[in-house]
Amino acid sequence: MTPELRAYLIELTNIDGVEDLWQKHCAKMASYGFDRLIYGFTRFITPNSLGDPNDFVVLSNHTKAYREGFVEGGQYRHAPMVRWALENEGWCSWRMLGEQVTRGTLDEKARKVVEFNLTHKVHAGYTISFKSVSSRAKGAISLTTRAELTQDDADAIWDQHGQDIVLMNNLVHLKILTLPMMLPNQVLTPRQREALEWVGDGKTMQDIAQIMGLTQATVEKHLRLARETLNVETTAQAVAKAAFQNQMYVLQA
After folding, report:
1. DSSP state letters, 95-144
2. How many domains does the chain contain in total?
3. pTM of the predicted model, to two decimals?
4. Is residue 233 part of a domain?
């Protein structure tokens, strides 16, 4: 490991916000030739589904048009490399995808994803599937090369720098898991968060009201709004989901 890379990794470990982390990571990957990234993570995967898209953590520096089609438009559900990531851990060259196209083994929906990608010059790269932290969780990142590069170019870059690239992406993934990941429509207010924290500590409604200097009715209102914000039915579920998102017991939120 070079002194430069060591210093960069130390810098990453000390970042305290996802936005800053992601910007630095995108810039670093671009220095290797991978200038467009999509990171995805969910803690709510099942054998038959990736779970509610509203619960996904998705970070990307692709164009708005690409994100709208691939993510919001649901193309990811049929993307061959997403399927690979769900079934494997480690990293994979997109050369495998090219071989599937050549052999004609892709189904119609997967072929449409490939065609969509080609219209956005997404044709060469690597996918890293991170080691799962539980049976319900899965994270992966797609690294797309600059538009003028080929898969041969991507493979040559990987031969020279692949281990360092994997190390940096693994660290970024693990760092993201420690940072508050508040989805735009699921951000708790300070009062909602505080009430959930006291519930998580085992306090009763009467205890929480006294600690927060509120009436029990107001505490119950904060908890109800927290449940609605997090799209869950019970307060216990709200505590668990807020904890999953690292919204509880944080210095800043």
Report:
1. HHHHHHHHHT-S-HHHHHHHHHHHHTT--SEEEEEPPPSSTT-EEEEEEE
2. 2
3. 0.77
4. yes
